[in-house]
Target: NADH dehydrogenase
Amino acid sequence: MGGAWPEVVILGGGFAGLAAARVLERARVPYLLVDARNHHLFQPLLYQVATGFLEGPAIAYPLRALVRRGRVLLARARAVDLEGRRLLLEDGDVLPYRHLVVATGSLPSDLGVPGVGERALLLKTLGQALRVRHRLLMALERAAREGAPLSLVVVGGGPTGVELSGALAEFLRYALPRDFPEIPEARVVLLEAGPRLLPAFRPALSRYAERALAHLGVEVRLGAQVAAVEERGVRLASGEGLVGDLILWAVGVRGNPLPGLPADARGRVPTDPYLRLPGHPEVYVVGDLNGLGFPQLAPVALQQGAWAAGNLLRALRGQDPLPFRYRDRGQLAVIGRNRAVAELWGRGLAGFPAWLLWAFVHLRELVGFRNRLLVFLDWAYTYLFREPGVRVLPD
Amino acid sequence: MGGAWPEVVILGGGFAGLAAARVLERARVPYLLVDARNHHLFQPLLYQVATGFLEGPAIAYPLRALVRRGRVLLARARAVDLEGRRLLLEDGDVLPYRHLVVATGSLPSDLGVPGVGERALLLKTLGQALRVRHRLLMALERAAREGAPLSLVVVGGGPTGVELSGALAEFLRYALPRDFPEIPEARVVLLEAGPRLLPAFRPALSRYAERALAHLGVEVRLGAQVAAVEERGVRLASGEGLVGDLILWAVGVRGNPLPGLPADARGRVPTDPYLRLPGHPEVYVVGDLNGLGFPQLAPVALQQGAWAAGNLLRALRGQDPLPFRYRDRGQLAVIGRNRAVAELWGRGLAGFPAWLLWAFVHLRELVGFRNRLLVFLDWAYTYLFREPGVRVLPD
Model:
């Protein structure tokens, strides 16, 4: 490898890793950011890429363009050697560190349901979002050719499932009459195992989300536990079979731990209150991977990444670390083109005002001027003309 | 297949096929457009997608959104049965026709040079452009990691090679100092077998293009015939070896004939002056595939597609066909961000005025409002901030 690498290593360029990098940039501490991908991904808008409302690069930003004082290494880590204080890379190289921030995030989990890995579509990476879009367009072409009905099944009534099923319903409402008049009928079914959608929100907002999705044409099925994903649909625990041309799996996130790190049953790594690995104060674990029990949400990842970098700076200065405190700023979920629900400052908010808030928050957080501008224009265009722009299948 | 298909079939949704479709739309004649891809591709800007200056969907538009009175079938044709008047599809289906317009375009040709198929990158489809971008970004990451020099070799001094090497040089000029300071040196080499670049233009414009490319940092090598593409570069006919981390093949286009059609040595299908297959007046062959000897350029394809559809309408009305007349409106090639050369109304034009003309012509021809707007914004952004926006590797 060319030259010596910095002694502070951040593994992962998601929300948590980038938040840590920013703190180090401001403190002028050299660091190395290692990621298997060359971009930061704005995951909260991934479902809009999957449904053709946004282009992929609008929500992805090159890490090298974000990092100015640090360095970037495009590499996949195979394991960490905690005693030897080094990362083992998949290509055989070895990367020593003095301080390590592990921010490898989370992976979809099949929750032990058979058939998920082979037959369901996931939505966690840019590649997966583009695959969903590709499969969606191909399913429409096939249904049009055969004059057959189309059925899309989304599993999971959390924010991802709600956002995805709403966007799918709006996509179909636009695309069917104009582009695919041959398709006689198209359904979007949202399956939730529990008694209500959005269980992390207050019940009134769950009910609002259910009504708003029904208004968009989504069939919401509560108490519908999926027992298996089969060749052409899903099998419920009740024994009932549901036909689905596409099965989108929006439940079950588990930590994406690095071999060499201790992990709990959900793949998350327990830390002390300072976000450090017990027995290894030089290793910080932040974001979705952290096992302290905070929700796996972007605000937690942003705050933990910055907090860990702050403690790292304190350690460099010989100061004691501070225990992590989460400032809960609330949560949001969007339903279709101009409705959302929000929990904020202890209050519930629903409808267009919540959507405006959602749009504002996401545009503000999107990294990079170009992205903000393009996302805004894409949104504005879709909003004015109701046309999902990206309906292209690359070959 | 669902329902009966129209009796007029257009095979291929490129410039020629779409131009034919538009004439039929206006005449309210039902038709079926068959393509293996779901989008029309604006090929003249493909090199900008390859170099990250434009996003893929900005130059691709869904066929279903372009076709209102006709129908679209996403399918690959395996062969034509001229006697039986039917198309054989790759999936086994059979498509009868009464009139057929064949507009399957052209493919890159290796010109018999060994190693091209395995080791060179082509630039004819959206998928290929995205692959070039991916390989370019990966080559930069590898060179940065190893602190090694980078060499990009473009083969072919026609418009595509000139545009591509100019865009690569500008991409490197932007990206190296900001994102890849670890790379000590990067070259772009343009190889042309003949004595000058842009042989279809007047010699003064060739010399202008050579100077303008040299100004951008492109090493132009004339009289450099490639004998083989090897593991890590190219071998010239002189015996000289040239190192290349990427080899981009921008020479040699041959017709993409359909089995069942007679084709000449260059893969092109001879027709009568009315653009019809001899002995089969119900079959028209247009665009790059037509063997009448016109240049393989977008304006020819647009005019032939429309002309063939005009003759088809005349046949439906019992009128005699008209022989194809080409209205030569000139040609353009762009060199970098704000220079171009043009042959127009018998005159040569070079520099910024030619570039303005180029930008105007391309924006005017780009299909669809959204694309025009997005391409314009992408251009404006790059022009103002000099940043190729798309540097994201999807996984």
In short: Chain A touches chain B through 48 residues (CB under 8 Å). The domain at 116-251+330-385 of chain A is CATH 3.50.50.100 (FAD/NAD(P)-binding domain).
